[in-house]
Amino acid sequence: MKSFNFHSIKSVKEAQKLASGKSVYLAGGMTTIPAMKHGLASYSDIIDIKNIKDLSGIKVSSKSIRIGAITKHAEVASSKEVRKSISSLALLADGIGDAQVRNRGTIGGSIANNDPTADYPSACLALNATIHTSNRKIHANKFFKDMFETALKKGELIETVEFQIPTKSSYEKFPSPASLYAMVGVYVAKYKSEVIVAVTGAQSVVYRCKEIENALNSNFSASAIDGVKIKSSGLNSDIHASSDYRAHLIKVLAKKAVTGCK
Amino acid sequence: MQRVSLVINGNKVSREIEDRTLLSSLLRDILSLTGTHVGCDTSQCGACVVLVDGKSVKSCTLFAADIDGSKIITIEGLANNGKLHPIQEALKKHHGLQCGFCTPGMVMSVVDLLKNKKNPSDQEIRDWLKGNICRCTGYQNIVAAVKEAASKM
Q1: B71 with B97, same domain?
Q2: What SS3 class is residue A151?
Q3: Is residue B145 within 8 Å of residue B90, measured between CB atoms?
Q4: How far is the alpha carbon of A165 from chain B, nearest alpha carbon, in Å?
């Protein structure tokens, strides 16, 4: 690994002051460090944001849950408040990677990285999340741009992620047995006004599946998905699964999610 | 360079290290605690698992500078005066290892599991050990050993 300067800082201001074109913010490091070890990424400065107290913790109100960017997956998974308000979100966190990844990896790191097969981006889309950064608020619809690309600008730091509490919701994924990443993951959230269906792992970036949303908006039941046609063109095809298989998985997982909604 | 001070297996340790030093390198290359293994070096296999402030983490995916001031327990810190830890004893009894390369990480991961779950089910043990890969045993005997260790701790 190429050498760099490690900075442990205590405030968002300090973080932004140090940020440059060759720096990176470090939260759990579950992707950043492997990428550096492989030589896929190198930085002159690592800015460790884990000691910024304002970025940690979970706050629940009657309508939303706000999770600090450096909150670890294990903390979200075991949070009584999250389990009570949006149990599917706690279950999603409990299914990310393995136990040791959940002990280090953070929600902010996950969405800033925007891996096309990551779990949290689907939660952000399905649960109408607002990403509060050091500079502004960004709705999840506008945050996830493309593979590993987000709306974040250089030096901009995610502070909290705010999820809107749905009437009911559920997340189902088919993980790759080797990498534990989602080959396809489907998050279904039912609100008073609409149903949102977010799909991860199937395209270059997380997206809303309008075909299934339309079916569920008129009839919220697993059988309503039977008649939906999911086109395989445009879906990922790799050594793990063909695009046809992924198209099939989207329906299977969406049905499972609807059945498991609570 | 960074000055890093840690308490490793109860002993205070302080070293001047390069910023890029991984915890696994600090343990193995600088402190000669070679019980912590590095298998894949890509955060997949779990042979390098140690406890940092009581939580199991992969030491190959962690900068030592990042955890300055922490308490670390490695596999060397488990046996007491030559008496194996109950998890080590159970793995030995149930043949939960063959080549033994994955075992240090497996043991440290199980320490973390049994701290939070006193009597885990087979499925809970398998789910927890997803990040610990063993290419010899097929896991059956590891699960049996964890169950026995749980009943004795």
Answers
A1: no
A2: coil
A3: yes
A4: 28
Task: Indicate yes or no: CB of A46 within 8 angstroms of CB of B68.
Answer: no
Q: Residue A179's pLDDT band (boundaries 50, 70, 90)? A: confident
Average pLDDT score over chain B: 96
Query: What single string gives the DSSP state of each residue in A71-89?
Result: -BHHHHHH-HHHHHH-HHH
B60 to chain A, closest Cα gap in Å: 9
Residues of A in contact with B66 (CB under 8 A): 6, 8, 26, 29, 48, 50
Chain B residues close to A100, C-beta within 8 Å: 46, 49, 56-58, 109, 131
Q: Where do the domains of chain A lie, and which CATH numbers do they carry?
A: 5-48 (3.30.43), 56-260 (3.30.465.10)
Nearest to A100 among B58, B65, B68 (CB): B58
Are the C-beta atoms of residues A52 and A15 closer than 8 Å to each other?
yes
Burial of B147 (0-12, 13-18, 19+ CB in 10 A): middle
The interface predicted TM-score of the complex, written ipTM, equals: 0.95
Q: Do B110 and B143 lie in a common domain?
A: yes
pLDDT digits (tens, 9 = 90+) for B38-62: 999 888 999 999 999 999 999 999 9
For residue B120, pLDDT beyond 90: yes
Residues in chain A closer than 8 A to B56 (CB atoms): 99-100, 103
CA dist A60 and A162 (Å) reads: 9
The pLDDT of residue B41:
85
Q: Containing domain of residue B120, as a range?
A: 86-152
Confirm whether B39 is domain-assigned. yes
For B57, list phi and psi in degrees, rounded to 5.
Answer: -140, 160
Burial class of residue B121, CB neighbours in 10 A (0-12, 13-18, 19+): exposed
pLDDT band at B106 (very low <50, low <70, confident <90, very high): very high
The model's pLDDT over A81-91, given as tens digits with 9 standing for 90+, comes to 999 999 999 99
